[in-house]
Amino acid sequence: MVQSRRRSGNYRCPRRAALPAAALLLFLLAAVALLYVSPPPLADHPVLASSRRRRSAHTLLNSSGAGSMEEFERREISRAPTNGSAVRDDLWGSKLASKFYGCSNSSSRFLDSNITTQPERYLMIVTSGGLNQQRTGIIDAVVAARILNATLVVPKLDQASFWKDSSNFSDIFYADWFISSLSKDVKIVKELPHIGGKLRAPHRMRVPRKCTERCYLNRVLPALLKKHVIRLTKFDYRLANRLQTDLQKLRCRVNYHALRFTAPIQEMGEKLIQRMRERSMYFIALHLRFEPDMLAFSGCYYGGGEKERRELGAIRKRWKGLHPNPEKGRRQGRCPLTPEEVGLMLRALGYRKDVHIYVASGEIYGGARTLAPLKALFPNLHTKETISSKEELAPFSKYSSRMAALDFIVCDESDAFVANNNGNMAKILAGRRRYFGHKRTIRPNAKRLYPLFLNRGNMSWNAFSSKVHMVQKGFMGEPKELRPGRGEFHENPPTCICERTDGKAVARAKSQDDQVLNSVADQGKGIGEPAVPNHTDEEAGEPDDDEDVPADKEVVDAEMVDDVLAGDPELEQILSD
């Protein structure tokens, strides 16, 4: 009978097997009923909340006039968490930094200057622009002298430009150390000596920008052999970005070791650092470029309403060839971040509200009003003027380059460095901070941050923060985040950064200058030294491959910008640092 019942298809499950299924069914019915009776509050519904925020913005605009969107955005900023994320080690440094170190020692093939320097060959250069643009000129002048096997006369600084700074080389840099530390590489003298019993007048000339080794040998050397003394004027970016390895390493020895500030500047800079450390264990340095001329030339809109459009428009009339397109500039990432945008980015990355920030800046368009949103996000803002007395700054305050040198020292030693615009100071500090241990250096990815700032009101703080983390990946100063050859060598010196091959983490040297020059010969592996191109044309430079831009994408008309700058050398100097 039992076998017959199983075959018939009327078999019933035992009672104990039916009970779990019934319980599961009852649980599901109860869950559905609960959801139906108690729907989520409308305020928490993401779609409706987003829609309401948009309606609020339009209501504000319609009720209060043109400035209301700015009010709405400020109110939205307050949604950022008060204390930000918990302090994380990666905010203040790279976990991979111990695997890399600066390596700028020359190879055995790089002969001593006593052997290479030829008699009666003297190179003089006149730098151009602000402190950091002049610094690049000094570095490249040493390398140019080596290429020409000439004696370098201590460079003459630009004293007639917009900056109106009468400082000489020895007023800013430690000249004796500069000469002695490079003595094996290039012979350097303070003054042009008499040649054949008389003082020769230098032959003035100018080389094209990004002049290669062959360019110097074909253009400058024949004149040097004939005239014996050559003065190269407006010496900024007059040397190619890519050179043979030993010359690139010489660039690093000059930049990171030979150029030291004078004792008064260095001591005052260290006082400023100490005062920042007294306020906080860690601090951020922000290089803020927000001068009226610079903003006007950018052609961008910064949220200041009709007043801003009128004031910056008046300045913009100086440049007839400039045809700004604010929206296009933003999309291409060519607009400096506003103080408010810098603050939002930093908070989104996880820096807490109680973090102390040292602000290195010149004149800020809009003054305190422009800084107010940043101060709301980070109340602990400091400048060299707020943490020192007028008496302490008196020896420096009349000289723009010496004041810039103080900012440079503090920014260099900060735990995290960020700039709102990628100018010369930002580039030089980025390269320096890579060389000395990959200290946290944040380059805003302006092109991809722009849509996030634009749509900030339509997303939660956590979503905004997550997206900022995503777009800033590769822009935080990590090892190898820039491919070799990308950008200016001063910003990305891969030839001078080596990777440890033994896998052992070595403690950071007490003195930055002793870390490389006094270390054992470079035993690590270089991180991708780019091959030196074999140019057939003496003036051939290399492309600025900051980004691989697809052919169908909009690009900046660099020639138009250069033409405008050429017509206004003062503006070029303003924008240089």
Automatic annotation (TrEMBL):
Keywords, alphabetical: Carbohydrate metabolism, Fucose metabolism, Glycosyltransferase, Transferase
Transmembrane segments annotated in the record for this chain: none
Taxonomy, superkingdom: Eukaryota
Chain spans, region Disordered: 521-554
GO molecular function: glycosyltransferase activity
Keyword Ribonucleoprotein: no
Pfam families: O-FucT
One BP annotation, GO: fucose metabolic process
Biased composition (Acidic residues): 539-549
CDD domains per the UniProt record, alphabetical: O-FucT_plant
Position of the signal peptide: none
Annotated PANTHER family: O-FUCOSYLTRANSFERASE 16, O-FUCOSYLTRANSFERASE FAMILY PROTEIN
Family: Belongs to the glycosyltransferase GT106 family.
Name of the protein in question: O-fucosyltransferase family protein
Organism: Zea mays (Maize)
